[in-house]
Structures are given as C-alpha cells and as structure tokens.
Amino acid sequence: MTSDMTGRMLRLLSLLQTRREWSGAELAGRLQVTVRTVRRDIDRLRELGYPVDSARGHAGGYRLASGSDLPPLLLDDEEAVAIAVALRTAAGGLTGIEETALRALAKLEQVLPRRLRGQVTALQSAVAGITWESRGPRADPALFSPLAVACRDREVVTFDYTTRTGEAAPRRVEPQHLVASNALWYLLAHDTERDDWRIFRLDRITGLTLTGRRVPVRRLPGGDPAAFVAARLAAAPTRHRAVATVHAPADEVRALSPGLGTRLRPVDASSCLVDASDDSLPRIARMLATLPADYGLDADPAVLAHLRAAARRTLRACGD
Question: Which residues, 6 or more positions from 261, have their beta carbon under 8 angstroms from its beta carbon?
Fold first, then answer.
C-alpha cells in the first residue's frame, strides 16, 4: 500500500467517524477520487476489521457501524485534548471507574503529540468544578499517566516523598501497581534502597522522574495488589485507637456498611470487630456512625471525649 493510499484511507476513516452516513459521491468529492476508488478503499477498511455498512441504490451511502471489537479511532487535536482531560478527571474522582480511566489515559498520553500535552495540562489546571463534599487530599493529575506507564513497563522512577510526620526524602522504586482506596491513590512499589515493598500516597509525591531503566517483574507477596495495600493500611500506626465490638454477624455489617475492608474481622456467628482507629477524630466518629448495630467500644480517652461532645451537640439539636 503506497503512502498516498494510506493517507487517503486514513482520511476516509476519519470522515466515516465524523458523520452517521455519507454518499459515495460525497466521499469521492472530499477525497478527490472516483466513486469506484471509494468502493475499493471501503473494501480495504472492511478487510482491516472496520464494520462499514453500505446502502444499495444510486447514491451508494456508507456508514461506520458498531462491531464486535473496537477498531482504532482517529482523533483530531481538539478531540484528543478533550478526551485526555476527561480521563484525567475520571481517574482522579469518579467512583468505580478510576482504574479503567487510568489505563485508558496511559494509552492515550503515550501517543499524544508533545504539542498537545501542554494544552492538556493547561486546560486541566484552568478548569474548576464545584465540590459539595470534601474528599480529602487529591493527587496531582499529571502523576497518573507517567506512573501508570512506569508500572506497565516496569521502569524505575525517582521522586521526593513526604511521610505522615512531614519528613521529606528522595526515593528510588520499581513501580508495580496504582491502587485506589476511597479518596486516596497509592503507588505500590519495590523500594530499591530498602529492598522491601512499600506503598506511597500519590498526594505526597513530588518531583517524579522516569529513569528509563527497566527491570524484571518482581513477585508480589500474595499476588493481589489491592489486598496487599489494604493489609498495609490496616497495620499502619494511627494517632487514635478505636476498636468496636459490633453485636451483629460480620456479613451483615459488611453488607450494610460497605468500605470497611480489612478493618472488619468476624469474632463468632453473632459478632465482629471493626477497627476504626485513625489519625482523625471526625473520621472515627463517621465510621462508627455507619455501624448498623449496637457495639461496645475500646478507645483512647481523646476518642471518647470527641464522641461525647458530638453526642451532646446532637441531643441539644434534637431538643433533649
């Protein structure tokens, strides 16, 4: 296939993707070829897997139909920028599709021309939305795509990381997975200097650099990235201890209070433990408030004081 033919077929495909139906004469006019050439090019697109339907008659209309597989799409500059911005937004905030959006974003930004990447970043930073509920610290959207590509390609990265105590230090890691947990994103990676698996909150990462050095795949203990991160988060030290013994079966509590994950452990057929320990007293109160049954509480004095104060305010508001 000559370069002229390739260019013409790409132009033909682009036209078919922009309108529901074209006549053979219209396509021939746009491409400056004969109707017979259009028919041959349509046949070539079909051989490549594009489902092009044709209507009989003098006009000989064509349209790109839906098929069993998704063929490659052709996007102009404006469409590519719009989709990249939308995927960045979805990766950072839409519940349930964050990881799917992240994979799609990595594929798109890998082939996005350099001239368009600046437009995506500028548009992302210039657009604001109204948020009715605070979801805590958010990661820089520009981190998602390069980290996703680094995880896929097993490329070593370096960055500066600020710990929960406020200390900052350089890190050099082998990324493996990006894991979302409620409002936060975590990078699961093997720390080369500490020779251990670590998790890093994306909102605490700055100065990310791709080194270009690729390494063999490492075997993650347990093989489940989400379970590994959940276990690490559950075992992490917290400022305030709060453990509830809930007088209900674990399956019932899990069904009525989704999101507890590894914080919930069965005790027997009629009770379970919920570890609500956290650095934030309001978050502890919110988690306990979602429990669907009576419970006993083993908690630090600061937690008990916060809950009593909140209860008094609630009772006053109710007129009691």
Answer: 230, 234
User: Which tens digit of pLDDT belongs to each residue from 289-310?
Assistant: 989 999 999 999 999 999 999 9
Residues 6+ apart with CB under 8 A from 15: 22, 27, 30, 31
Q: Are 30 and 14 in contact (CB under 8 A)?
A: no
Specify the pTM: 0.54
Q: β-pairing, 264-268 with 271-275?
A: antiparallel
Cα–Cα distance list, 37 to 31, 34, 62, 65, 239 (Å): 10, 5, 14, 21, 73
pLDDT at residue 57 greater than cutoff 70: no
Residue 106 burial class via C-beta count within 10 angstroms: exposed 0-12, middle 13-18, buried 19 and up: buried
Q: How far apart are CA 6 and CA 74, in angstroms?
A: 13
Of 180, 183, 159, nearest in space to 170 by CA = 159
Phi, psi angles (nearest 5°) of residue 10 = -65, -40
Length of the chain (residues)? 320
265 phi/psi in degrees, rounded to 5: -135, 130
Closest CA to 121 of 99, 105, 134: 105
